[in-house]
Amino acid sequence: MVGMITFTLVYIGPGDPAAIIAGDEATPEILEQIRADLGFDRPFPVQMGDWFWKLLHGDLGTSYFSRREITELITPRLQPTLSLGFQVVVLSTIIGITTGMLAAWKAGSRLDRNLMVLAVLGFATPGFWLAFLTIWIFAVNLGWFPVIGYSPIQDGLFAHIHSLFLPVMVNSILASAFISRITRSAMLEVLREDYIRTARAKGASELSVFLRHAFRPSAIPVATVIGASIAGLATGFVLTETIFAIPGLGRMLVDAIVRRDYPIIQALLMVVAIVLIGVNLIVDILYAYIDPRIRY
Amino acid sequence: MAVISDSSNEWELAPPFSTRLKGMFGSTYRAAKRDLVLAAAISVLLVGLFLAVFAPTLARTDYERTDPVNRMLAPNSHNWFGTDNWGRDVFDRTIVGTRMSFLVGFSVTLISTVLGVGIALVISYFRILDAVMMRFVDGFLAFPTILLALALISLIGPSVGNVIIALSVTATAGKIRLVRGAVLSLRESTYVEAAKAVGVPIPRILLLHILPNIVGIIIVQATFTLASAILAEASLSFLGAGVPEYVPSWGNIIATGQGYIQVGFHISFFPGLFLTTTVLAVVLIGDSVRDHLDPRLRGRLKTTAAQQ
Asked: pTM (2 decimals)?
């Protein structure tokens, strides 16, 4: 279904890539030739069937422009995006859960209110503008980080993390705002349960009540929101990679859209959808781990 | 059959839409008098609406005319927010940009709410239609909003109308899922069963018994759609896939300033501040409407809004 939507969307578009490839001075004969080369003269179901068949064999198609295999084009782009994604997910989970639990611990206090104000701000702040502000403060004025640019892991781990520091921070802060908010409300809900009162009554310390009795039951909505925030990251990366000039998949998508390189747009949307479906699956499996009563 | 279900019976089952809505606005007004944050948020939104309508007449310069002599000026007494790389006044472009954000935000919210609620109500009573429609909805929701909108716009071309269409498609899919879930659970409730038992026709049940009871969810969800649509329009315009470059929009102006970060910080800073403030105001209003309608929901609906 996801594949059908992707393919149909891209197919029905009025833009003609053949005209773009051929340039301004192309004759109609050349256009026809290019269309035939790319298989545009075949009927729609044949094109779609062909695309699906290749997809099942791990073939994402060929770029209209460079005429190279898309799988080949994607490979060098994976590292920056995956590294960014990994760092953001780890960092935002840590920040989100810690601040959420702190807020729940001191519910109603000034700390709680301030943290929640920050969480609302995190929702309202556009990532690309926050990225702009951090570049201006930390790269342009303080000179702690390069303004743009990316060094791969091969250049050394430190240089790699250093070059990704700002984008990681921007995305983590925004993603952790949600996680924090959900952690707080889930914790507060669980803390009202009878067994928490029992745990307190038997003399368990407040810390142990929090970490051992209350955290696990409240982890289910938290896992859900972490999964959802990964979907948000896919969008965030398109913007962040554009601003920070990171040669990742997000940047590749924007470039492909500008050039109307449809096979790449299709392939990348498919990859994103598959990754997100995978994330949902992992979250579902985590549910069973968090709460043994859930069985599949 | 319809004879039995005269209107006086229905009034007891569910108060009509208009009464509830009026009560809601009246109490929002009273809540705003007590709550300064809410009052501030509402004022910000009203100022924004005012600017969206009147900004072109308020602008003191021709915000589309280039003026190379005065390019890249820092904020000063004449150009409050400075000028951009073509010498255009950033303050004027920013207030005119309000119009684009509000136009896209409110259109997407209105279209997706009307379509989403309509479709959800209809399909919830036709099993086959429901199954087919929900597969489409799931398919659309498998992609993050902005990516899908980007792909759509790359096909149909960047224009204001197309941005609204692209964003409405995904927002509608989200609404269908939310409202359908609510309708399905209400369908099992005793008062709907009672209405069915006395022979109220299904369209009437949907409109008079079920709809009034999900108005709260719909309104709260609408505020989050508004916030996300304003952010999405700015993001798309920032990437160059939103409204065309010559139309001032907050996203466009920020994108312009991005290239001049070393010398023209002011170009991106001010429109971003407007954008953040507006979205913040909408989110805060949504939060307090939700708390007001149902204090138990604190912190929950937000997740559904975030997922879209």
From this structure: 0.79
